[in-house]
Amino acid sequence: LRRFFDPLQDVAMFYNSYQSATAALEKLSGVLEERPTVAEPADPVPLPAPRGELRFDGVRFGYTDRTVLPGLDLEIPAGQTVALVGATGAGKSTLARLAARFYDPLEGEVRLDGVPLASLRDSDLRRALVMVTQESFLFTGTIAENIAFGRPGATPSEIEAAARAIGAHEFIAALPEGYDTDVHKRGGRLSAGQRQLVSFARAFLADPAVLILDEATSSLDVPSERLVQHALRTLLADRTALIIAHRLSTVEIADRVLVMEDGEIVEDGSPADLVGGTGRFAGLHRAWADSLV
Ligand code: ATP
């Protein structure tokens, strides 16, 4: 049924119809990117306390007859921040979608804490892993409702604590209607940077073991960029993160960079190691640095 949700339906209506946190998180991930239905396991493995270790073993995948990922092996230890970079069409989003079980591999296995994703109840996976994609998506409703979406039933003080942690409280409190500001109404219009902060506060409140982030490409002014980068550091702390990175500043805060080309990982190392090398990342880094001058 998830696929029939109207992405723009009122948040209040959503809460009336779908009370559980699970459903909200499902909707969150389902709306931010259309998620095809994958089968629920007949014999699910429980995951009461996810640590966030992700692992790809011989993963082959294609949307059609054409293979996009020929055979991916990757281990991401719990807590690591991984930046994915590579040319358009290299397979970054595909890797991210497989990690979030938008699709099942044609061959091989994706595992969370050693458990194949296909053996996890969808609700358990949604609690353990949140995907935030592209331009921050805000629902109709107030800023408070949008943040609370990360954890339905959150109290106003929990919502404010998340906003404070992310560095969004200041601008929210300065709005005439504060947390009750309607994000889409005239006068309540938020800047691109502010929208990102609200979506980060929502993810922070959801507090998943694994965060998958398709970084927004919209350019921000320098002060907003600083705020967003600061918020990102807070959001990444104490969880595993896989970021499709579009900003040099984001790559630089990663523990590890993966460069993808034609569905394969062609470079894998710390930003410092790769930038000092002679490979693709070093070239990309130079181009990036030049564009910032
Ligand atoms: P970008 O930076 O442009 O988002 P990417 O590295 O994320 O690129 P993917 O989106 O993973 O690359 O695409 C990898 C390949 O899979 C491309 O050839 C793309 O055309 C194809 N592809 C992606 N999504 C689909 C889809 N839903 N159906 C069919 N083919 C797809």
Automatic annotation (TrEMBL):
It is found in: Cell membrane. Residues 54-287 form the ABC transporter domain. This is ABC transporter ATP-binding protein. The chain holds residues 324 to 616 of 616 of the full protein.
